């Protein structure tokens, strides 16, 4: 879980950086392409193409295309349709998608996992709930598309790489993830992008460099490694911890208005969900171990 906590801190800066320096100023498809291309350049030198068979190579590219490529296209476009508070509000459904997808892939129904994901949603809603504008349905669907892509990628990576863990460093195959994302980002920019609306200041280029090499590059690598090491309930809860972290960064650095009482209450609820999922994971692991001893 340490990987997930570290990346949560790293990603907590991304919301404000996008909202303050990029949204409405730089073409969203160019921002997506730049982030993905820079992340890919970070990992290409480490790529060892022969380590994975064709099925897993295509699978990892597919995960990258969905989790990073399609997710970014939907996410950045939502800034055109919605306000930042509305976007943050609509991201609270990601834990539900993760719990349901994991249950679907495992062909089971773990009500406790779903309950902990739901509790995380409640905590996030306590922080970000507010009235929304009338014309928001297209933006809502765009954010849900991003949420679903992010959830599919996380759950898919956990299941795809589970039985090869330890055979070789994940660093040597993760480049396929970004190559898959590029297969979405390049045609999206060529088809829908605006080449006249590019960064015009060194600050904007610097923000894109940080988001690409660090937030997208280092961040997604360690997030997906962390996703392999926790159960679906913990992963679902960790997704919504980004909301209070992002709000705190925004409050401290950019001095935006925020309701500290809501942050405290919502964060406490999500922490309870996180502790509950960790307790359930350890209990299930212990029960399974004891059952094996007596079998």
TrEMBL record:
Domain EamA: 3-128, 139-275
This protein's GO CC annotations: membrane
Alphabetical list of InterPro entries matching this protein: EamA_dom (IPR000620), EmrE-like (IPR037185)
Transmembrane regions: 29-47, 87-104, 111-129, 135-157, 169-191, 203-223, 235-254
Keyword Membrane: yes
Keyword DNA repair in annotation: no
Record keywords: Membrane, Transmembrane, Transmembrane helix
Pfam families: EamA
PANTHER family named in the record: ACYL-MALONYL CONDENSING ENZYME-RELATED, BIOTIN TRANSPORTER
Protein name: Carboxylate/amino acid/amine transporter
């Amino acid at each position: 879980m340490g990987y997930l906590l570290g990346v949560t801190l790293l990603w907590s800066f991304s919301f404000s950086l996008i909202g303050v320096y990029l949204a409405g100023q730089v073409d969203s498809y160019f921002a997506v392409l730049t982030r993905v291309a820079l992340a890919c350049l970070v990992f290409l030198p480490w790529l060892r193409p022969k380590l994975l068979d064709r099925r897993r190579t295509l699978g990892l590219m597919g995960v990258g295309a969905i989790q990073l490529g399609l997710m970014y296209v939907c996410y950045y476009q939502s800034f055109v349709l919605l306000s930042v508070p509305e976007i943050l509000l609509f991201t609270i459904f990601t834990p539900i998608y993760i719990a349901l997808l994991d249950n679907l892939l495992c062909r089971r129904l773990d009500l406790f996992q779903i309950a902990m994901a739901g509790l995380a949603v409640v905590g996030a809603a306590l922080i970000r709930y507010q009235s929304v504008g009338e014309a928001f349905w297209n933006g809502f669907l765009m954010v849900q598309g991003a949420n679903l892509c992010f959830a599919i990628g996380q759950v898919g990576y956990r299941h795809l790489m589970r039985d090869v863990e330890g055979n070789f460093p994940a660093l040597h195959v993760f480049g396929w993830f970004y190559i898959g994302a590029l297969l979405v980002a390049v045609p999206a920019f060529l088809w829908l992008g605006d080449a006249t609306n590019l960064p015009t200041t060194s600050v904007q280029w610097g923000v894109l460099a940080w988001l690409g090499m660090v937030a997208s590059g280092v961040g997604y690598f360690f997030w997906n490694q962390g996703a392999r090491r926790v159960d679906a309930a913990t992963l679902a809860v960790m997704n919504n911890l980004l909301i209070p972290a992002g709000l705190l960064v925004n409050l401290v650095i950019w001095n935006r208005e925020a309701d500290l009482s809501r942050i405290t209450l919502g964060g406490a609820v999500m922490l309870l969900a996180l502790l509950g999922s960790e307790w359930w994971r350890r209990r299930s692991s212990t029960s399974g171990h004891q059952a094996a001893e007596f079998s």
